[in-house]
Specification:
About 40% of the residues lie in helices and about 0% in strands. The chain has about 110 residues and is an all-alpha fold. Helix 2 crosses helix 3. The longest helix has 15 residues.
């Protein structure tokens, strides 16, 4: 429960809705990768932090959701792309597969 230790090991970044949209477009254009909003936000925050250092660093961000979950959103963000035209979204029924994880996150 030591906040100073936590602040030493973690940081936070504020990312606006516009920056998230910019990141979705950028990832799609540069890598042909359709990121969900959560993943795009993480990518943007990571890039922003990596630009603050002169050191050569490697960054990792995790993708958290399948883009089909946000299919309506992409119609406005990437209107000229027919991203889901071959997918009948009403037929997709995936089972929930919860995984229990440990609750101890101590370092």
């Amino acid at each position: 429960n030591d906040l100073s230790k936590l602040k030493k090991d973690l940081l936070s970044v504020a990312v606006s809705e516009e920056e998230t949209v910019e990141s979705i477009r950028s990832l799609y254009k540069k890598y042909n990768y359709l990121a969900c909003p959560h993943s795009a936000l993480a990518a943007y925050a990571l890039k922003k932090q990596m630009q603050k250092t002169d050191k050569k660093v490697t960054g990792i961000f995790l993708c958290t959701a399948h883009p089909v979950k946000f299919s309506e959103l992409y119609k406005t963000i990437l209107p000229n792309e027919n991203l889901f035209e071959k997918i009948n979204l009403s037929e997709i029924k995936l089972p929930k597969q919860p995984i229990e994880i440990e609750k101890d996150f101590s370092l």
